[in-house]
């Protein structure tokens, strides 16, 4: 899969100096330093200084080199971020626009190949369970925050998110969702849209025999801090996600660790979700009534 950073690649980058890693990448492409210099417009001596660590390369130089080696976008991003971390006194420079829906096609393909999907989400309703209004509200917030054109970059992400949900109706596949209760209380959308989202969760939990949805009640003591979402596919691949990145894990040991973490969250969750859903639904109704007074 070309667009998801891989844990093995990340480990290599962490263990090897950036310049040496670039040199190895060039050798794998069977290019000489002179040939790479010709592709990048840099001098051969500059390429050599970067590879030997004699100079600290700029993120732009690193991106130019990796693109010249015809590496996929996720590898370009990985090396650029490594260069940004090396840059003295500056933090990562991130253009958010490519991240709007960036990973949806990869999620779609990974999920389509899986028979059993486990999903833990600590902050938002998982994409597979979202209503279109909820999904749109999330993307719109992101677009507004970073001055991104919703029609150009956001609407397609919502459509892809809805496309992913078709897999839920294949009863040969099994889905386990574990959410923190606080997900329901986070008002991503207007109260009426939040009520519709709660009803959607109830409908899927009640009427789809291949779907199990469990909630971790607020105040539950958790051994593992719920810092990121986890999706595990057939116990041989996992995806972890933060606000601007998704990492694909194929290393069996990492997948086993994530399975144990998921099991820990699952052990604290209840499938008796109606009382929790009712409580949050009433709160949104009360909010609507209050606003109409």
Question: How would you characterize the overall build of this protein?
Answer:
The chain has a six-stranded mixed sheet, sandwiched between helices. Strand 5 and strand 6 (246-249) form a beta hairpin. The chain folds into two domains: 7-86, lambda repressor-like DNA-binding domains (434 Repressor (Amino-terminal Domain), Orthogonal Bundle), CATH 1.10.260; 113-126 and 171-292, Endonuclease, Chain A, CATH 3.30.870. Helices cover 53% and strands 11% of the residues. Helix 3 packs across helix 4 (44-52) and helix 8 runs antiparallel to helix 9. The chain is elongated and about 70 Å long. The protein is of the alpha/beta class. The protein has 13 helices and six strands.
Which labels suit this protein?
single chain; 293 residues; alpha/beta; 434 Repressor (Amino-terminal Domain); Endonuclease, Chain A; 2 domains; 13 helices; 6 strands
The assigned structural class equals alpha/beta
User: Major beta sheet, specifics?
Assistant: 6 strands, mixed
Helical amount among residues, as a percent range? 40-55%
Please give the count of helices. 13
Question: Terminal Cα separation, in Å?
Answer: 53 Å
* Count of domain modules: 2
Give the helices and strands as they follow along the chain. HHHHHHHEHHEHHEEEEHH
* Secondary structure: number of strands: 6
CATH class of the largest domain: Alpha Beta
Radius of gyration: 22 Å
For the largest sheet, list the strands in their spatial order.
3-2-1-4-5-6
CATH topology of the largest domain: Endonuclease, Chain A
């Amino acid at each position: 899969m070309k667009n998801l950073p891989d844990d093995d690649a990340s480990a290599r980058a962490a263990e090897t100096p950036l310049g040496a890693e670039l040199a190895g990448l060039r050798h794998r492409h069977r290019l000489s330093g002179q040939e790479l210099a010709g592709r990048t417009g840099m001098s051969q001596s500059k390429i050599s200084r970067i590879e030997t660590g004699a100079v600290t390369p700029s993120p732009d130089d690193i991106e130019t080199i990796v693109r010249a080696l015809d590496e996929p976008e996720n590898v370009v991003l990985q090396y650029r971020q490594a260069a940004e971390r090396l840059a003295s006194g500056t933090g990562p420079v991130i253009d958010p626009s490519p991240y709007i829906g960036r990973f949806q096609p990869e999620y779609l393909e990974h999920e389509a190949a899986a028979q059993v999907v486990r999903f833990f989400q600590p902050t938002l309703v998982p994409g597979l369970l979202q209503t279109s209004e909820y999904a749109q509200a999330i993307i719109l917030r992101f677009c507004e925050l970073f001055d991104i054109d919703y029609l150009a970059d956001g609407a397609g992400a919502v459509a892809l998110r809805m496309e992913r949900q078709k897999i839920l109706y294949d009863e040969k596949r099994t889905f386990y969702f574990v959410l923190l209760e606080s997900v329901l209380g986070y008002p991503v959308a207007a109260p009426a849209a939040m009520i519709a989202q709660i009803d959607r969760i109830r409908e899927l939990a009640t009427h789809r025999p291949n779907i199990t949805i469990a909630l971790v009640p607020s105040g539950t003591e958790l051994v593992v801090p719920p810092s990121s979402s986890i999706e595990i596919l057939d116990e041989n691949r996992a995806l972890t996600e933060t606000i601007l990145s998704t990492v694909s894990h194929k290393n069996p040991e990492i997948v086993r660790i994530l399975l144990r973490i998921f099991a820990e969250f699952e052990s604290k969750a209840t499938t008796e979700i109606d009382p929790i859903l009712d409580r949050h639904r009433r709160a949104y109704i009360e909010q609507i009534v209050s606003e109409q007074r």
